[in-house]
Design brief:
By secondary structure, the protein is mainly β. The protein has helices at 2-18, 215-227, and strands spanning 34-43, 51-57, 73-78, 83-89, 94-97, 107-114, 117-126, 136-141, 147-155, 163-169, 177-182, 190-197, 205-213, 247-248, 257-271. The protein has a domain at 34-127 and 240-264: Sandwich (Immunoglobulin-like). The chain is built from 2 helices and 15 strands. InterPro entries: DUF4249.
Length: 273
């Protein structure tokens, strides 16, 4: 018995010592690919003239920053062949347009030219309804009944099929929590959206955004959430398995990640009571 005790203590000690060693996991690193973040958001009751498109490259799994991409030519055109130029803020990878003209239902085409290759995508500007003024708060919400939960509402347009992107941002978390929804079960009805978080407290401000999105983007984003672990943040890892609507017209093998989306957006802030 004494021998067993001594052996167990020595083995436990070795185990604890070994736990202090750094273990390097050799993860395969794929060739870097272009990532095009082309989300055109038209906030309700604004002109929507100022828009931004960001270009970056994929990177290794453990890297927290994505390398920016400079020197590209970025344009968006409408069905009347009006061209809107997006010009880079030097050295940022952010391409800005100050005279964009958003029109609900209009079809737009994105074109990115980089290193002799041309990437394009076509999408329609989608509308969205407003977020209703009444927001409910439940201090015994969440799955276990121990979180502050809010419920906000929007009136679905029953004359058409609609797809929505929800974004809820709180001060304690770096990124918004996202969710997509269709109106299969709420066609034409007053639709509730529930949001809770264990760290919410009185005085916190919840930034709520409601986007109108296309069916294609709805399906794309669902795949993106699933690929990222469905934790509400699709951008926590590089979306290496999910491709959007952007096509490399020059070399299809050198495809880009990202999506060209155009959405009207409703915003509302709620202060936790």
């Amino acid at each position: 018995m004494n021998f067993f005790k001594k052996y167990f203590i020595i083995a436990l000690g070795l185990l604890l010592i070994s736990c202090e060693d750094v273990i390097d996991v050799d993860l395969d690193t794929a060739e870097p690919r272009l990532v095009i973040d082309a989300s055109i958001d038209w906030q309700k009751n604004t002109t929507g003239n100022e828009q931004k498109i960001k270009l970056s490259m994929t990177t290794a799994y453990y890297n927290e920053e994505f390398p920016i991409v400079s020197g590209a030519t970025v344009t968006v055109s409408n069905s009347s062949n009006t061209v809107f130029n997006f010009v880079e803020n030097t050295g940022t990878g952010e391409y800005v347009c100050n005279n964009f003209q958003p029109v609900i239902g209009e079809t737009y085409t994105l074109k990115v030219i980089l290193n002799g290759e041309t990437y394009t995508a076509t999408e329609k500007m989608m509308s969205v309804v407003k977020i209703e003024d009444n927001i409910d708060q439940n201090n015994e919400g969440g799955i276990a009944g121990d979180e502050i939960e809010i419920t906000y509402y929007y009136q679905d347009d029953g004359s058409q099929l609609n797809y929505y992107l929800y974004s809820n941002k709180i001060p304690q978390v770096a990124f918004p929590q996202y969710e997509v929804e269709d109106d299969d079960d709420t066609q034409g009805g007053l639709t509730p959206v529930y949001f809770s978080h264990e760290d919410l407290k009185p005085g916190d401000i919840v930034n709520i955004k409601l986007y109108g999105i296309s069916k294609r983007y709805y399906e794309y984003f669902r795949k993106l959430l699933n690929a990222s672990g469905n934790d509400g943040n699709p951008f926590s890892t590089t979306p290496t398995d999910v491709r959007g609507n952007i096509i490399n017209q020059t070399n299809s093998d050198n495809f880009a990640y990202g999506y060209f989306r155009l959405s009207e957006v409703a915003l509302k802030d709620y202060t936790i009571q």
